[in-house]
Design a protein that fits this description.
Elements: H1 24-29, E1 36-41, E2 48-55, E3 58-67, H2 75-100, H3 106-124, H4 129-141, H5 148-167, H6 180-192, H7 197-216, H8 243-254, H9 257-273, H10 277-281, E4 288-289, E5 294-297, E6 309-312, H11 315-324, H12 342-355, E7 362-364, E8 373-375, H13 381-392, H14 397-404, H15 417-427, H16 431-441
Antiparallel strand pairs: 1-2, 2-3, 4-5, 5-6, 7-8
Helix pairs in contact: 2-3, 4-5, 5-6, 5-7, 6-7, 8-9, 8-16, 9-13, 11-16
Length: 453
């Protein structure tokens, strides 16, 4: 923002959130001691209040984003809103004066001005909490590819917040009146019900996404869900496999007939894509684009964020898929394993590890869900194995995160084919995947199955 002597007023702001860009910018841009003052501009030409400045001898102004006569259903409500906005505008003037006098730090002042902006926007928000929450959640729970579990998670989170607001008589009042205390109350109820870190954090992510969208639409300036912190994860360390161990696992699978071949295919997919077991077993043949050597994957663990990944098909995986694809389209690759329950799959894979002569370290849970011992080597280890091999091959951390779909960016992130092509070049650096191609193609002599898997 340029400071000119007696600068003309800027055009009308499009959104009240522009209140945040005030004299703080002048303070940050000034060199040396800051002297001057600020005042409220209330003329007849504009519909909102402006803030005037005289800093180090130069005069200018900035928009406040506060309407003098907010539109309300009744004259009485409009008069009340006008009074509130006037007092909020005076608060902004006071905050800026504190900055100029060095009575208030810039960062703290920015936080306080943002809070004032939120109160102003809440005052002008015409949507009630129930209107926005229901409108926001409906398209998400009816999404075509959304699992039942995630849909129920959405509904439960929204229902809990509405229950809290209804108890306080605020479900039909402005969305802007939802506070951090309301979110804290909802999350405390989930914690009291026994939610572990993973479930707790997913539910908090729903609240954060909800109010981020409200901010993007101009209804709020700050996110009340940010007053609640994510619960620290207490996950169990999962161990990767060595190349020799993977080869022994493949040998053990070769002795289990058709079911063993499905396990072998699932393992090979996980080692090349870095995908979790549930995601691997759901894969259909038509999701593998062999012409472009990419595949689309919507990780089940990230259903909440509706995130789609486009992953590279490595050269070893391309050769395997090209040899095995027989024109199937909508059929899953692992037709026998896919419908089986999680516990059954876990037990089956542990049997395979025993057949392979692999020692499986076990540790106790530390997340408050009992003292049951948990295996540190499991199918999930293939995901860690690929990450380790990429690391040993010198692949940068950020590219490894892209390959494994690990990101903290916005909920929706679509990985382009160009990025997949760059990641495929990184996969070419992994000699273990090429060594496994020969092992995968070996035809072992069928052995009698001595375990029920």
């Amino acid at each position: 923002m340029t400071v000119n002597n007696f600068a003309t007023l800027p055009p009308e702001p499009e959104r009240p959130q522009e209140l945040v860009d005030t004299a703080v910018q002048f303070a940050l841009q000034s060199i040396g001691p800051i002297t001057g003052s600020t005042w409220l501009i209330d003329d007849e030409k504009h519909k909102e209040y402006y803030i005037g400045f005289r800093i180090n001898g130069k005069t200018s102004c900035a928009r406040s984003g506060l309407l003098k006569r907010p539109s309300c259903e009744t004259k009485e409500a409009s008069d009340n809103a006008a009074g509130v906005n006037y007092r909020l505008a005076k608060e902004v003037v006071n905050k800026v004066n504190q900055i100029i006098k060095n009575d208030l730090g810039v960062i703290k002042a920015q936080e306080q001005i943002l809070e004032i902006a939120n109160r102003a926007m809440a005052q002008a928000c015409s949507l009630s909490a129930v209107q926005f929450l229901v409108t926001w959640v409906r398209p998400r729970v009816t999404a075509k590819n959304l699992s039942v579990g995630v849909a129920l998670l959405y509904c439960g989170v929204i229902d809990r917040l509405l229950t809290i607001l209804k108890a306080k008589g605020r479900e039909n009042r402005s969305l802007g009146l939802v506070t951090g205390d309301d979110i804290k109350a909802a999350m405390k109820s989930f914690e009291a019900a026994g939610d572990g870190p993973s479930t707790f954090n997913k539910k908090l992510s729903v609240y954060r996404a909800l109010f981020n969208d409200a901010i993007a639409l101009g209804y709020l300036a700050i996110n009340p869900a940010h007053t609640v912190k994510y619960m620290p994860a207490k996950s169990i360390e999962r161990l990767p496999f060595t190349l020799d161990e993977v080869k022994r696992i493949f040998d053990a699978m070769d002795g289990l007939g058709g079911l063993g071949q499905e396990w072998k295919m699932a393992s090979f997919l996980s080692l090349n894509l870095g995908a979790r077991r549930a995601d691997v077993l759901k894969r259909r043949w038509d999701e593998f684009d062999l012409r472009n050597k990419v595949m689309t994957l919507r990780p089940g663990k990230n259903d909440l964020y509706d995130r789609v990944l486009t992953l590279p098909i490595s050269e070893p995986l391309y050769q395997v898929l090209s040899a095995m694809s027989n024109g199937q389209s909508d059929q899953v690759v692992c037709q026998t394993l896919n419908p089986r329950q999680c516990s059954s799959l876990s037990n089956s894979f542990q049997i395979i590890l025993r057949r392979a002569g692999i020692e499986v370290p076990r540790t106790s849970r530390s997340d408050g869900k009992g003292n049951r011992a948990v295996s540190q080597k499991s199918f999930y280890g293939f995901r860690h194995t690929l990450n380790l091999w990429l690391d040993v091959a010198g692949v940068p951390r950020e590219k490894r995160k892209d390959m494994l779909g690990q990101t903290t960016d916005k909920a929706q992130e679509f990985y382009r084919h160009e990025k997949a092509e760059l990641l495929r070049k990184e996969l070419q650096k992994v000699p273990q995947l090429h060594a496994l191609l020969e092992k995968f193609a070996e035809t072992a002599t069928p052995q009698p199955v001595s375990y029920e898997i």
